[in-house]
Amino acid sequence: MLNTYVCELAHAFLVEHDVCPECNGALARRADEPRATLVAHTVVRVNPSGRPFRLGLAITNSGARTLCIIDDGVRGEEVELYAREGCFHAREPAG
Ligand SMILES: [Zn+2]
């Protein structure tokens, strides 16, 4: 599951904030399905590893947005997000 922080106006974030950055409302944490849709992606060729990787912008079903590293093997726009080493990754959804 994916921790999502949502205010009363349904602004949603994957990163915890003291109050909603959009409306200053209180945020409640809930556990969401980690399904997300990639709305943009690009190939990062210059990086410390020297090995190109894909970087994407994903939106969860709650409307939360995040950058993510796209794992090898992801073919479509529907992905599953998971956190590793301090950043989000996207993998092909299970099932
Ligand atoms: Zn809000």
Helix content: under 10%
**Count of discrete domains:** 1
Structural class by SSE content? mainly beta
Indicate the proportion of strand residues: over 45%
Main β-sheet, in a few words?
Answer: 5 strands, mixed, barrel
Tell me the total number of β-strands: 8
Mean pLDDT: 95
Order of helices and strands: EEEEEEEE
Unreliable stretches: none
N→C terminal distance:
15 Å
* CATH fold-level assignment: OB fold (Dihydrolipoamide Acetyltransferase, E2P)
**What small molecules accompany the polymer chains?**
zinc ion
**Helical element count?**
0
Q: Strand order, biggest sheet?
A: 4-5-6-8-7
The CATH class is Mainly Beta
CATH architecture descriptor: Beta Barrel
List keywords for this structure.
five-stranded mixed β-barrel, binds zinc ion, globular, 95 residues, mainly beta, OB fold (Dihydrolipoamide Acetyltransferase, E2P)
